[in-house]
Amino acid sequence: MKLCLLLLFFLTFFEANAQVHLYPDSLLQNLQTLEEKDQVLDLLRIAFYYAQENTDSALNYVNKAEQISIKYQDTLGEIITYRIKGVVFFESNRPDSTIWYYRKGRALAELAGQDLQLAHFDNNIGMYYWNKGLLTEALGHFYEAKKAYDLEENLYDKAMVSNNIGLIYQSLGDFEKALTYGEEAHDLRRAIPDSIDIMTSLGNLAFIYTELEEYDKSDSILFESLKISDALDYDIEKSKSYSGLAGNLERQKKFKEAESLYLQAIALSKEFVNQSHLMNRYAELANLYLKTGRFEEAAQLADLSLLISDSLQVKSANSSALMTFALSKIALRDQEEGFKALEDYNKLTDSIFNAQKATSLSEMEVRYETEKKEQLIALQEADIAQQRAINRMQLFISAGGFILILLVGGLWYNRSRYRKQLEIQDLKAAEEKNRLKAVIEAEEKERSRIARELHDGLGQSLTAAKIFVGSLGKNPDSEDEQRSKEKSMGLLSHSIQEVRQISHNLMPKKFEGQGLLQALEEMEELINKTHQIDFRLTLASFVLRLKKENQVHLYRIIQELVNNGLKHGDISQIELSIQENNQTLSINYRDNGPGFSEKELHNSTGIGWQNMTTRAGFLGGTIKLNPSDQGADLLVTVPNSS
């Protein structure tokens, strides 16, 4: 993941009214003038400064801050202490300790009702998961933080979390969303202003424009960042700018100029304590050497990148370096190492990504937008309640004889209440519109995800097979030649199976050819083949009159019911029956899992229930939860009409 470790310039650790300028000498002098109980924040600022330079010193200061916080029962100081301690362990590549302190501090912040601190912890935990390559979990925590920051005045916090969300979308290849959040973060940082964070935003925007093949615009942004980094003598951002400019030259096939800039970036990165920068630079130059046929050098640099990523436990960074290493080794006819690296690549990408992730990301985005609207509605309703109380008091005071004022006040009150109610209705209507739009967009995102999976996963495997097959024929009767053929066939068979799986996830084969009922029979057959679930499908005799596009909606509703049962319930049996009564289709779903109540269903955090009810609404139908002693029992009814 390029730019995965833009480490702690995205994090905020102190309150908005205590902007941090980390000069340890002045902070140490200031400590001498403070009473012990007032030293906590300055001690934590010093610890934060030393986090990347000297772990022992950082822990010494943060432990002292923790002791003072506990001694004087300073709950807020103790909460921030856990966050800074997590940062110190993050910087010293101790992930288990990092997440332990983040979770401990978050629990204390929740107990103390410190909503802003909860948001800070969600942002930090999001960075931890992102560093692990768990994009779904990372984005979920970033959206939780953004909901809280949206209600705050601190521009630094708002910019930070928007920047982080934009970087997640960069990693997912959704560059339109990445650009939206990246520009939002950049505008906020210019308003602060903060030169270092401005450089960070410029680098992110340049990367997006590179992916959009707008190289002139990307170069212009990177040169602007270089000017700032030169003025501040800030080599980290200078290294990233060199890397970005090199990437633009590489894409324009100016390989010699690109190599020179990559080497300059590597020379700078070797001086950094945080080796993640060097890891990324090695991987970038290795890929350049692979493209230009310098396979030995490509393999060496990719191996160096992998060694660093293993030491940092940065799971996601292994992916591109592994593929570069594998292709280089195959080109060098080192078949054993090449195919082992390919197998490791397939295992890694399988563990990082699964078919539910794109849906989960869409769910998080919809949940954020929905809850944001609900917050606005709650504020509006609170305003109405407050206004009613004020109006009642005004009426009570004026009731002594000011009848005219009473009438005018009553008219004003009714008009104000009516206007507020209209505003709430508009907000609710907009919320429902966004929810419907998100359901439709989720399908488009799924198609985009599969296109990326074909390009990045299957495409890379086929590229490896092409390189390998191209080397056949030199020693027709040799043992290596036979082994090469077998390996090639294995790669191609794996690719064919992957294509079939992707195609089936998009739409069952029988649906395209025959329709809904045959697709459900295919679903029954596939699930029963697992020998773990007894799937019983009962189809009464009737004529299905739904249009094909409406059959798709009904199939997705049933698919969601079955998938939820398989995913969330400890079940061994599913019963699905469909019958017609008075031109109405009744679809009854039952399983023998733990079941759930109607309250649990409506309070669920996912959009699965919303998705199903929305689709049923499109068809003019409903979904109802039936009472059941065991398992889930739901009834879907829709008109059986075109």
TrEMBL record:
Q: What Gene3D superfamilies does the annotation carry?
A: 1.20.5.1930, Histidine kinase-like ATPase, C-terminal domain, Tetratricopeptide repeat domain
Q: Which reaction does it catalyse?
A: ATP + protein L-histidine = ADP + protein N-phospho-L-histidine
Q: CDD domains from the xrefs?
A: HATPase_UhpB-NarQ-NarX-like
For this protein, the record's Pfam families field holds: HATPase_c (PF02518), HisKA_3 (PF07730), TPR_12 (PF13424)
Q: Which PANTHER family match?
A: NITRATE/NITRITE SENSOR PROTEIN NARX-RELATED, NITRATE_NITRITE SENSOR PROTEIN NARQ
UniProt-listed Enzyme Commission number(s): 2.7.13.3
* Source organism of the structure: Algoriphagus halophytocola
Keyword list (alphabetical) reads:
ATP-binding, Kinase, Membrane, Nucleotide-binding, Phosphoprotein, Signal, Transferase, Transmembrane, Transmembrane helix, Two-component regulatory system
Protein name, UniProt field: histidine kinase
- Which residues belong to the signal peptide in this entry? 1-18
Q: Where are the transmembrane segments?
A: 395-413
Specify the Histidine kinase domain's residue ranges: 449-642
Instruction: Provide the organism lineage as a comma list.
Output: Bacteria, Pseudomonadati, Bacteroidota, Cytophagia, Cytophagales
Report the top EC class in one word. transferase
Tell me which InterPro entries the record gives.
HATPase_C_sf, HATPase_dom, His_kinase_dom, Sensor_HK_TwoCompSys, Sig_transdc_His_kin_sub3_dim/P, TPR-like_helical_dom_sf, TPR_rpt
